[in-house]
Structure of Substrate-binding domain-containing protein:
Amino acid sequence: MRAISSMATRHVLADLAGAAASAGFPELHIESVGGVDAARRVADGEPFDLVFLAEDALDALAAAGHTDASTSTPLMRSHVAAAVPLATGERVGPREHVAFPDAMGMRAALQNASRIGYSTGPSGTALIRMIRNWGLTDEVGDRLVQARPGVPVARLLADGEVDLGFQQLSELVGQPGVAVLGILPPDCAIDTVFAGAVATTSTTRVSARGLLTFFASGVVAHVKAAHSFARP
């Protein structure tokens, strides 16, 4: 079977597919690209059995008839985190606490940063909306650096292109040259629910739906937790 996903879930989906194969499910080949590109390819009619994207992107595809809405299944929740470059290139993991004391602390960090990295995905869209709602667009707008499609914010940090970056925690954890400060505080948290659905182009819909059920089961909860994803 063939699937497409956004880059944010490529590692966890690879491990979920491996666990499914070990449990006797059909082998699943997953292509991971930028979320915008993935949605466009599905909308253009490229044949896939399964589609894994942010929940709102899947809803839009279902509304247009490209995925089967009845099969849409929330799989995992991703918290957006903040990170900074790590000069030594040493790998570090996320801290247990949040990155900033509160929303005011995050505002101050944005105002003090020289270059701010954000993604092309839902986390980036939410961050830009937050900056606009805070009235900071004019102040920090020329310091915002959007990662190129398919390029993680971690690479911008490691390459010195930005000094503060925001993306899903799963995309930042364990990346070389990156120090994860933690997730965003509750009063300005950005969370994304990633889901899966059977594509209307699938010729193996029963098997595809079975895989989705397995991916959503508690049997593989530890796989998601290992990649810093929470319950949906």
Notes: The radius of gyration is 18 Å. The chain has two domains: 2-76+193-226, 78-188.
